[in-house]
Structures are given as C-alpha cells and as structure tokens.
Hints:
Radius of gyration: 18 Å
Strand content: 5-15%
Oligomer: single chain
Shape: globular
Helix content: 40-55%
Amino acid sequence: MQDQHSSILKEYATTAAAIGIRDMEFFKNRAAAPMGPGRGWIEPLDGASSDEAFAFIDENGKPQLWVTPFEPDKYRRWFDVFTRKYYGVEFSRIATGVPHNIDQLYPKAAGKEQEFRYVRATAIDPISNQNIGRTIEKQMKQRKVEIKKDPALLDSKKEPKPIRNATPFTLGKVTGFHESFKLPDDRSLPANRGVAERLIAHVEKYLRVKSPLVSQQLNIELTQLSATRIQTPISERPEKLGRVTSDFTKRWSK
Length: 254
C-alpha cells in the first residue's frame, strides 16, 4: 500500500504521524482545527461501529485506518472494507502471494497496557514487523509489566501520553527494514549504534521531505538511546540515561 506508507512518511517528516490515541478527543480537535496541517474528519466503515474501526481523512484527503487494539483478529476484515471504500478494491484480492501483515503501527500489548482506545493500522512487511516486534516492541511490553508490578518505578511527574506518534522504529516497519536491534543480553549503547545508523539511513531514502525537526546525527543518537532505554529494566537504568549529550556514546557505554 504505497499510498498509505507515503502518507505516514510525509506526516512524520513535516509534523508528526499519530499512531495511537487514548480517546476521540484527538479527532474532535482535528475536526475543529482551521484549514491546513492537522485538520481532518472521521468517516464510518461499512459494518463497523465507531468503537471497532473507522477512517480518518487528513487535510490532503488521504485516508487512515484506525482500529481498536482489542480485536486484532478483525484487522484484515477492516482493512479490506477500508481499501474497498477508498481504493476501489479489497486488499486481500490484489495481495495474493505478496507477503504482508495487516497490523497496528503502535504495539498491541503496549497500547492495551496504556488503555489506548484506537491504533492506526495498515499493511506491513512481515519480516520488518517480526524483527521490531520481537525486540523493541517485546521489551516495551516488559517495561509496562515491570511498572505494573512496582508502580513506584513510574515517574510520577510524567502524565500519561494521550497520543503516540510514529518513530524511526515505526518507519522501519513501514519501509521494510529487515535488521534486528540487539536483544537485552547486550544493552550497551554501542551495541545498538550500527543498526540505528542503518535504520535512519534506510528510512531517509524513503522520506521525500527531510525532517526539519532533527538532524540525521541526532536522529541516530535518539534512536540508539531509545532502543537501549526500552530494552533496559527501569531499575537498572543509569539515572541520566534519558539525556542526549554531545559525548552521548562515551558517557553511557558499558
């Protein structure tokens, strides 16, 4: 679904691409926004209640599929309904023999733990989906389980985020990045440096508009840091692991 993927990449490069939301307030705000970036509206899908799935149309007329993370067995059906309405054909009819997953862009388990009501879904390369799923997303779930067992580990100063936006990990899934991040047996920052560099280089090949928000170097460092933070138990994290500094790798390598 090149059109779907291109929309996500453009959103990421120019503003932000939402992939998980806690409630409908996000869409109500966008519907009420003035004309221009961020504006859009909701349209229903045949056979789906608004609690199950719906389409969001952005300011450029591009449709997005949003689904509940609590019924993943229905993703394929809703994606077929979605593509039939907006592209004139059910995706399953034209994707025969093409490896793909119909999946949410924000991790299912993490979305459930954070009580996100809706997540964005699309067709994803299965190898990319599995590689990110068994490393980054698996460890995201572990951190949520860790906090559930010991709420004292949660930073009480931080409010729960009502929206989650796409990250380079998300774009790796969308663009078919086939490498894996290091598993927790080696959580040093240098362990994830090479794959972070290759992920950013891979993603930037698909970005028609370079992101004005961060430089390539900072994007690599943020991605490397995020991968290491996610895969490190909260109780084992150095106090300042969340800071990005000029001597980033040297300061936090083990």
